[in-house]
Amino acid sequence: MSCKRLFNDNWYFTKQKPDTPYELFMNNDKAWEPVEVPHDWLIFDTNNLYESGDGWYRKNFNIPRIEPDNKYFLRFEGVYMDSTVYINGKQAGEWKYGYSTFEFDITDYLADGGNDVVVRVAYRSPNSRWYSGAGIYRNVWFITKKNVHFISDGIYITTRKDENLWHVDIASEVYQDKEINDELFITHTIYDASGNEATSSKSKLSPPFGSYNPSKMTLTVKNPLLWDIDHPNLYTLKSELIVRNTVIDTETQHFGFRKIDFDPDKGFILNGRKIKLHGACQHHDLGALGAAVNKTAIKRQLKILREMGVNAIRTSHNMPAVELMELTDEMGFLVVSEAFDMWERPKTTYDYARFFKDWAEKDVASWVRRDRNHPSVIMWSIGNEIYDTHADENGQRITKMLMELVLTHDPNKNAWPTIASNYMPWENAQKCADMLKFAGYNYAEKYYDEHHKKYPDWIIYGSETSSTLQSRGVYHFPLAQPVLCDDDLQCSSLGNSTTSWGAKNTEYCIIADRDAEYSPGQFIWTGFDYIGEPTPYTTKNSYFGQVDTAGFKKDTFYIYQAEWTDYKSNPMVHIFPYWDFSEEQLIDVRVCSNAPKIELFFNDISLGTFNIDHKHGKKLLGQWQIPYSKGVLKAVAYDENGNVVAEDIKSSFGDAVKLVLKPDKTILNADGRDLSFIEITAVDANGIAVENANNRVNISVKGCGRLIGLDNGDSTDYDQYKGTSKRLFNGKLLAIIASTYEPGDMEITVSSLGMETQFLKLNSISCSYPEGLSNTLFENKPNNQIKEIPVRKIELASIDGNCLNNNKNSITVKAILHPENATYQ
Fold first, then answer.
1. How many CA atoms lie within 13 A of 391 on its CB side?
2. Degrees, nearest 5: CA angle 408-411-416
3. What percent of the chain has a predicted confidence (pLDDT) above 90?
4. Reported confidence tier of residue 803, pLDDT bands at 50, 70, 90
5. Rounded mean pLDDT of 516-520?
């Protein structure tokens, strides 16, 4: 019988300078340390997130006896980047790209008893325009199969409808490297979400010796529950190979009954219903966790994006993790799965362009074959902003090659080949797009109508839009004055920090897509902030997200939510900025809502109403200018009949006196992987959130849990993600708590100078978990606990008033620090 088990346990790691010979440290036990896999070695030092080096992993494992009728495989879901695998001192294989899944047959390298596997990762920087991470950052599997077996990723499922019946076409690749005299049968069984059998079929196979051929079979299901974004109903296909009434290999995978179509004039159609893609581009890092994959962390990101109204994800700019694909299937997201950020022409010195010519065919096969059965995948993007498509005609050759490779592995177009380009204004890129008839435009909305008329058979969508910049809780006034750079190295969340290539504001981005009715939709840059590429400054992470790296929402989150959600089911209204400035300072106040009418009050006095035409309007936010004074701003949203459907309040606040701890869950599974995300918020004496507090916070964990990450979303903060002390950023800090394998209580202690220490109890419960999980569990290491109370606000005050004229050409201004006991005077 076949067996597939996790292989994440018992790994040891050492980091060496580039090209250091293995022999120099292989027997030095002090050079090696046990590590938790998945593992990203770069995330442990925020000051060296791109340091070149060789990462070496090794592991000893035991196979009592190598069975002659068995085949043994190692499968890596992602190793970044340029890896070589050795078994018992011999090279078993290599793989260059850091994002594609690969598998090696290691049968001939194994011995009875103890075996050693060594993986070398030759990480060289720069290799990306963003933070990639480094190491074995996704799961590893050890697979045992018989000499006759299903090829990995070799079962291809397509669903199609014929009147009231749905047909499931199944092509199964079976490998046989040893002739057998017995009859070989294949059985396919489909189960619904409750485990009930929907249909089954069995047939005889005759695979040729030494190769494989696809065995094709069609099953029929009457009136299945369809997969869509609102009801992501999944079915399970169980495929079995049978010899002499014995099952020798089994493959199980989820799929969905759904029909997708793209039309040049109608956009995207799912199961006969037109759907606008409200998409977000996402890089693969998980903030304080780095690139090391964690399904719970990915699910949290998707839940936050769903709340914003996002229904589609673009995996920028690489093959996604298996866990992301599982979650998008389960949660009803649509996916543009992207492969490459470069082809033959490089963007950085050590990027994948070094390997593209020799490896692209293998990587495309890995990419498409692994994920082609996922109902969430609707597009295969063969590249992002590829200069080859612009430079010369060679780009057309590569476009054709990649398109044909995709269709070789997905001939039924479970997803459609496409490309994302910022070169669409020019001829060569248009020739490439014309081959695909499916063109993603990066920051080129102004060409939609022109090209829609010029190429009426093209599907045109916004593969990358927006690129507005915002630091959570930072506001540079006035709104009318664009401010890209400032001394604080922060971008304004008011709506006046934009890039030269992106949208002039968030409203423009929304309206351009809304009014292009023929377009399937858009993917904004980005959903979450990500480490690296910190335009316009040289800081730690980006400013592009609508959510920061910690998962805290920025104000633009609510602008998209106002246009991408329905007030009848989820009414909302949002005021920004917070309300704490210098007396008489003129403040731009903005309000967004998904309702048709809003009204703003200050200290219960109405400042006016604003009607929002969400379908056709060119102004989607209410806007006021108000001289600051202490009090309460309240925004009220009304439905079309004048009924109040939502309210939001921003109150003046004082200094922080207390920390409030809010976990997203209090009970964890004791599986070593489950997480609780604790939001730490500073409040004043009245319990009002202090939205500009930057107090330093110290955290410790006792019991059956561990602290594995601290993040505040601040691009300028280089305190370690893997420490125990970090500042709040504009009132908030995130602590990530992981379970161990031991069930029981855990106590989190949170302290800050001048405030009462807070305690929080969580609990982990016994659960089943797969064999082969990492037996090494990392926890954050204590860092310097600086005793400080940072300034949260400098108030400017003048007893002479704030106006200059011919009779008064100067005034005296006093700077008042808040809090008054700040350690920096």
1. 14
2. 100
3. 92
4. confident
5. 98
The DSSP-derived string for 361-424 is HHHHHHHHHHHTT-TTEEEEEEEES-THHHHSTHHHHHHHHHHHHHHHH-TT-SSEEEEEES-T
The CA-atom distances, in angstroms, between 90 and each of 108, 119, 276 are 10, 11, 52
CA 491 to centroid of chain Cα atoms:
22
pLDDT (tens digit per residue) in 2-41 = 899 999 999 999 999 999 999 999 999 999 999 999 999 9
The CA-based dihedral angle spanning residues 718, 721, 724, 730, taken in that order and rounded to the nearest 10 degrees:
60
pLDDT digits (tens, 9 = 90+) for 632-643: 999 999 999 999
Predicted confidence band of residue 211 (pLDDT cuts 50, 70, 90): low
pLDDT tens track for 136-189? 999 999 999 999 999 999 999 999 999 889 999 999 999 987 777 788 999 999
Over residues 540-557, the mean pLDDT reads 98
Q: What's the confidence (pLDDT) of residue 756?
A: 95
Q: Which two tokens stand for residue 550?
A: 């910690």
For 352, the 3-state DSSP assignment is helix
Catalytic residue from among 251, 323, 445, 464: 464
DSSP run (H or E) holding 327: helix 322-331
Two tokens, residue 228: 């869509």
Burial degree of 253 (CB within 10 A; 0-12, 13-18, 19+): middle
Q: Rounded to whole angstroms, how far apart are CA atoms 369 and 379?
A: 14
Q: How many residues does the chain have?
A: 825
338's CB contacts (< 8 A; 6+ apart) are: 314, 315, 316, 317, 318, 319, 381, 383, 384, 420
Average pLDDT in the 534-556 region? 96
Contacts of 507 (CB under 8 A, 6+ apart): 559, 618, 619, 620, 621
CA 412, distance to chain mean position in Å, is 28
Rounded Cα–Cα distance for residues 340 and 343 (Å):
7
Which residue matches tokens 């309460």? 632
* Catalytic (active site) residue 385: yes
To which H or E segment does residue 667 belong?
strand 667-669
Question: Looking at the predicted structure, is the pLDDT value of residue 105 above 80?
Answer: yes
- What's the helix, strand, coil split of the chain in %, to 5? 15, 40, 45
Structure tokens at 264: 């040049």
User: With contact defined as beta carbons under 8 Å apart, do 74 and 86 qualify?
Assistant: no
Mean pLDDT for the chain? 96
- Beta bridge pairs of residue 157: 170
Q: Which among 173, 385, 445, 507 is annotated as catalytic?
A: 385
Is 338 one of the annotated active-site residues of the chain?
Answer: no
Backbone CA torsion sign across 363, 364, 370, 376: positive
Cα(513)–Cα(462) distance, integer angstroms: 8
- Answer whether 381's CB lies under 8 Å from 419's CB: yes
Mean pLDDT of 649-673: 98
For residue 573, which of 511, 618, 638, 625 has the smallest C-alpha distance? 638
Query: Do residues 332 and 230 touch, judged by C-beta distance below 8 A?
Result: yes
Sign of the Cα torsion 18, 22, 24, 28 reads positive
Residue type present at position 416: W
Judged against a pLDDT cut of 60, whether residue 456 lies above it is answered with yes
